[in-house]
Amino acid sequence: MIDNTIFLGILYDYYGELLTDKQKDFFESYYFENLTLQEIADMNQVSKNAVHKTLVAIEEKLKYYEEKLSFYKKTEKIKECIKDETILKQILEIL
Question: What does pTM read for this prediction?
Fold first, then answer.
């Protein structure tokens, strides 16, 4: 099973543009820049709890988007199919 942090990063790649600028800023600060909740709170003049709640909401939203749209799941299926040379040849014949 894929690590949750990596999974969230992948989902962010797919669905990040659906988040608000503040949500993107919090997510990137926490997951990509490895800032603590307190550091993010101080930079944005909000409470540590507000940052935590926002990050939880973002995670839920990203997982919801994946549940409904399945871009990650579909991409993984396509990658698996491409590994099989026979299927790849069939796909190329169709195209």
Answer: 0.82
